[in-house]
Amino acid sequence: MSSATKKTNLTLRILIGMCAGIIIGLILQFMRSTFGDGKDLVISLFGLDFSVYGFFVENIFHIGGTIFVNSLKMLVVPLVFVSLVCGVSSLSDPKKLGRLGGKSVSLYLLTTAIAVTGAIVAALLVKPGEKFDIGADAVFEPKEAPGLAQVIIDMFPSNPIASMADGNMLQIIVFSILVGIAMSLAKESGTKVRQGFEFLNDVIMKIVTIIMELAPYGVFFLIAKLASTLEFNAFYNIAKYFILVFILLILHGIITYPILLKVFTGLNPIKLMIKMKDAALFAFSSSSSNATLPITLATAEKKLGVDNSVASFTIPLGATINMDGTAIMQGVATVFIAQAYGVDLSMAQLLMVILTATLASVGTAGVPGVGLIMLAMVLQQVGLPVEGIGLIIGIDRLLDMTRTVVNITGDCTVTCIVAKSEKSLDEDIYNNMDLEDEIASDELQHLTEKS
Ligand code: ASP
User: Fold this and answer.
1) CA dihedral for 90, 92, 96, 97, sign (positive or negative)
2) What is the pLDDT of residue 22?
3) Is residue 214 within 8 Å of residue 68, measured between CB atoms?
4) What SS3 class is residue 384?
5) Residue 85 banded pLDDT, cuts 50, 70, 90
6) Which of 13-27, 77-91, 103-117, 163-177 has the highest mean pLDDT?
7) pLDDT per residue over 13-39, tens digit each?
8) Which of 170, 245, 366, 433 allows an S-S link to 155, with CB 3.0 to 4.6 Å?
9) What is the CA 137 to chain-centroid distance, rounded?
């Protein structure tokens, strides 16, 4: 099979899975509200009551979707640990690690600050929350958001095994870097251990390949469940908020990142966009940068030509601390909630929103809906009612899906910029659009042929 055919295959199959999911999900939702009295559609089969909605949505879709997301999540901790240890230990120059850290963290923070500033300015101009009659909608039980000091302390593990068991990404990153540095300092023993890690890395990447082949089905289950349960809130202000966040997310993705990439590297940003499509589709369906991490990492290394020594560090770090899409939502949401409650935000408060939203994005875990919980921290900092989150929670899932795509696009953009500056980007791979097929599909075919 030619690589072009294979390319069309996986991406097309994922898209078909997604569209089929939307159609089936909406049909189920329609059937439930039309024939099932808004609750369920029960039909009698051989004298037994059969719940159509319950059977498909709560069983088939729920089980299929959860197994798929879990199987990707299962890879995250081993992948980050092994890949980062390999990457760091292969850095012969310890100064490179310091440079990598400095560059990537500053760029991640910069892109987030740009995102949230743009979001606040746009929200002040569009005024989505003005003349909003807040009534029964504003009911929200906030979970407690961690304080800033705690976010910093929590980066350092006291028990790395517990960090891995909890999937605490920042702690895993800190531990992996330390192991990697120690391995490169331990000379001969370090080299031997490193070889083992590299073999392990190959094996884990094979699992990514196998799971990606199942992505069309996984995406179908996830989207079908979502489309059959989603509740659309028709209020004008909410729609205004939704559209504003949505447009800003798109603009950040198609204007800010391409400009940064072009200015810093001279690379053609359209190629990056095209090569990101499988990862973007999965980020959209799963709403989780963490679950998408294996695909983002493989995209950076295999399609964008970023060397493992850079990608293994910047991609997991980005999936953990770089959430530009989330910061955009938080910027608009803060202004929206202030307007809805009739509060005028001062210049100092707006600057505080930029600062806290940027830091909140560092503390936001790459899993669905966490951005909304971290919004509580931003609101508290400027003294706005946290219950305001109740106004937007109903439509957050769709925005969460979109902002996750922006989040991972930012990770790849910064990764390419850092890699190019470190001469760790293979431009032949970056520019080769024939490579633009599903990740490691050749490997999968190879596996199938062998068995
Ligand atoms: N779902 C987002 C992500 O995983 C985080 C959030 O904004 O809730 O990137």
Assistant:
1) positive
2) 86
3) yes
4) coil
5) confident
6) 103-117
7) 878 888 898 899 888 888 877 775 656
8) 170
9) 28
CB of 359 shorter than 6 A to ligand 1: no
> Given this model, what pLDDT does residue 248 score?
97
d(CA 202, CA 291) in angstroms, rounded, equals: 19
Q: Give the residue carrying structure tokens 């959430």.
A: 323
- For ligand 1, say whether the CB of 407 is within 6 Å of any of its atoms: yes
Nearest CA to ligand 1 atom 6: 371
Q: Is the CB of 404 under 6 A from ligand 1?
A: yes
User: What tokens appear for 391 in the block?
Assistant: 């106004």
In the block, which residue shows the tokens 């997991």?
316
275-297, pLDDT tens digit by residue? Answer: 999 899 989 988 889 889 999 99
Amino acid found at 12? L
Residue for token digits 């990697």? Answer: 180
User: At 44, which helix (H) or strand (E)?
Assistant: strand 42-45
Q: What's the chain's average pLDDT?
A: 82
- Tokens matching residue 103: 């560059």
Q: At residue 174, what is the residue type?
A: V
Cβ(363) to ligand 1 under 6 A? no
**Ligand 1 lined by 137 (C-beta under 6 Å):** no
The Å distance, Cα 319 to ligand 1 centre, comes to 9
Enter the tokens of residue 308.
């493992």
Measure 401 CA to ligand 1 centroid, in angstroms.
Answer: 8
Residue 323 Cβ contacting ligand 1 at under 6 Å: yes
The rounded distance, in Å, linking the Cα atoms of 395 and 239 is: 9
Query: Ligand 1: which atom is nearest the Cα of residue 373?
Result: 8
Cα–Cα dist 374/379, whole Å: 9
Q: State if residue 334 touches ligand 1 by the CB under 6 angstroms criterion.
A: no
Q: Are 366 and 336 in contact, with CB atoms under 8 Å apart?
A: no
pTM comes to: 0.74
Query: Ligand 1 test: best mutation among 282, 323, 406, most atoms within 8 Å of CB?
Result: 323
| Spatial separation of the C-alpha atoms in residues 208 and 204, rounded to whole Å | 7
- In the numeric block, which tokens belong to residue 168? 């605490």
